[in-house]
Amino acid sequence: MRVDWPIERVDAVLTGLTGDPRKIAVYIRATDNLLRERFTMAHELGHLLLPWHLPSANCEVGEGALDLPTFSLEEEADVFASCLLVPDAWLLHQVDRSGDDMSQLLRELNAAEVTTAAALQALRRYLLAGWVFVSYGERQRIMPTRGTRLPNVPADKLVEVLASECFAHGEASLNGFPVYWYQMVEPLALPEKNIDDPRSDHQILMDAIAMVEPDLQRRNSIGMSANGKVGGALREAAGRPAIETFQAVRHRCEQWEHSTLLAQPDFLLWLAERSRAVETGMTKRRRSKS
Predict the structure, then answer these.
(1) Centroid of chain to Cα 226
(2) What is the DSSP secondary structure assignment for residue 141, as one 8-state letter?
(3) Other C-beta atoms lying within 10 Å of the C-beta of residue 118
(4) What are the helix (H) ranges across 166-290?
(5) 3-class SS at 35?
(6) Please, which pLDDT band fits residue 173 given cuts at 50, 70 and 90?
(7) What's the rounded Cα separation, in Å, for the pair 219 and 155?
(8) Which domain-ending residue is among 23, 43, 77?
(9) Structural domain range at position 280
(10) Number of domains present in the structure of the chain
(11) Which of 177, 183, 218, 204 has the alpha carbon at shortest distance from 276?
């Protein structure tokens, strides 16, 4: 039910949560922003359908809920709303149609009829590391994808530095507001393994580490760190094109304490081979069962 109340920071109220579930009621604050109300309704539905969220009475659906430093119930409800209003299957279709044109992809998201923040949240759900979006509505918002390395500069200088350090950038209109995008990942070619190279992925990694670390015990420690650093990123990239995964994982390694390994051809070859394995589904677990 749409109702008027003066507390602008409270977008919705749920009642009847501790009694008969048939008496649960959802009240949405009436505004002149129907897209925001639509997102609020999907957000509240998330609270009702995710069983560990109840009881909860009041909601503050912020424009930047996914920027919270901890994984909260409000963030989970926002993810639910994003998935409901911008389904993965539809989003992937738009990604395929737009190809490498990020400005075109942003324009296609207008068809989802969600707020600018919700549309960008959906993109962040899908895209790998290396993208930053800057939107201008009531206030400037900077939204990097997971694992993206942002320049270590004051906030008021960040956009200027992004523009100077990015490898590509552009803009598009989303719900009447300009959205600027920056591609921070370097568009490198995917290294190819020589057909007569008999080394396993592990041996390629250890050969790369041996070029910078003479101590055997330290090599093993760095090897474990390398697998841990890229493991989570590779899981996120399951089924993606190897070149896309390679570029994103390489970008993540720029923030790693052993980032000097990026200068070693064998380390880049190891990242490329791991990226190819993720694209084809040939993970270590699957290979061991074959």
Answers:
(1) 21
(2) E
(3) 27
(4) 201-210, 216-236, 242-253, 265-280, 284-289
(5) helix
(6) very high
(7) 38
(8) 77
(9) 201-289
(10) 3
(11) 204
The answer to whether 60 and 54 are in contact (CB under 8 A) is no
* Model confidence, pTM: 0.74
- The predicted structure's pLDDT at residue 36: 78
Spell out where the chain has E strands. 2-3, 12-15, 25-29, 58-59, 131-136, 140-144, 168-174, 177-183
Dist. CA 157–CA 111, nearest whole Å: 33
Q: How far is Cα 250 from Cα 266, in angstroms, rounded to an integer?
A: 13
| Structural domain contains residue 285 | yes
Residue 257 has pLDDT above 90, yes or no: yes
Residues 165 and 228 in one domain: no
Average pLDDT on 116-124 reads: 86
Give the amino acid at 63.
E
Is 219 domain-assigned?
yes
Query: Would you give the DSSP letter of residue 79?
Result: H
